[in-house]
């Protein structure tokens, strides 16, 4: 079956890798959030795209969860000595990606075309697409005003309390063309919303014009994997954001967030007692081992989702 995965950064990349390892290379398409993208020191930075790309290429830093394995920081140290900003850590090898991407974008290539070139060079066989070739930027509404996402997430280390989010340019952005074509493909067998932050990783994708309608009408079932296990997020600030927005920190709150969009909601086995409390019309609930600590865990979750979707076919 053809499979479409919607992904943010670290958590989404883990499941994307699991799917990539158990599916034929031409069966999987991963669409990554680009609302985290920003310009820094003259470079176009695409954090979620790069995290997914490096993970699929097998060259990511699995300890930090972002960046490249075996990275060095000599350029950043030299920049610091010169009085430049170093709050956003750009490794020496990682810089090559940003230099080339920025150069190709200035030459007039689209973000889709640039991503394809980078993936080809890194021997990433599955299709990785940005959610849009048009700019969308996440702004975090905090106590003291709006912050661009990377300033909130990296520079401020998620310390400010959040009150909401705004996606600048979202309603004018066109969803990536191949992404929309795949949603209309009768051979699409499964859509997976990866265990990424529902507010700042998934909502930027879902809020693009026509995406929700295309998901609702596509031939494939839509599965969403919860990024919340127990009362915490496995990675990132999702739990903190939920608490500050006045939402219970639980998988049930994530299920409610995807109300009317998702056919099957997937929560961790450890949250099985919550399954009966989720009463969302049209949404089935299943439990599975969703905590992906090892490569085997990633593959196992991918197989469970594919098997469940296959068994659920009419």
Structure, briefly:
By secondary structure, this protein is an alpha/beta fold. The protein is built from 12 helices and 14 strands.
Give the end-to-end Cα distance, rounded to a whole number of Å. 15 Å
The major pleated sheet works out as:
7 strands, parallel
**Number of extended strands:** 14
Give the H and E element order.
EHEEEHHHHEEEHEHEHHEEEHHEEH
Strand order of the largest sheet: 5-2-1-9-10-13-14
What shape does the CA trace take? globular
CATH superfamily of the domain at 2-38 and 132-142 and 167-311: CofD-like domains
Portion in beta strands: 15-25%
Architecture (CATH level 2) name of the domain at 2-38 and 132-142 and 167-311: 3-Layer(aba) Sandwich
Describe the structure.
With 314 residues, this protein is α/β, with parallel strands linked by helices. It has a domain of 193 residues: CofD-like domains (Rossmann fold, 3-Layer(aba) Sandwich). Helix content is 38%, strand content 20%. The protein has 12 helices and 14 strands. It has a 7-stranded parallel sheet with strand order 5-2-1-9-10-13-14, with helices on both faces. A 3-stranded antiparallel sheet has the order 7-6-8. The protein has a two-stranded antiparallel ribbon with strand order 3-4. It is globular. The model has no long low-confidence stretch (mean pLDDT 95).
Keywords:
alpha/beta; Rossmann fold; three-stranded antiparallel beta sheet; 14 strands; 20% strand
How would the blueprint of this fold be written?
Elements: E1 2-7, H1 10-22, E2 28-32, E3 38-40, E4 43-45, H2 47-57, H3 74-81, H4 92-106, H5 111-121, E5 127-130, E6 137-142, E7 145-148, H6 149-155, E8 162-168, H7 177-183, E9 188-193, H8 198-206, H9 211-217, E10 222-225, E11 228-229, E12 232-233, H10 238-244, H11 251-257, E13 264-268, E14 284-288, H12 295-311
Parallel strand pairs: 1-2, 1-9, 2-5, 9-10, 10-13, 13-14
Antiparallel strand pairs: 3-4, 6-7, 6-8, 11-12
Helix pairs in contact: 1-2, 1-12, 4-5
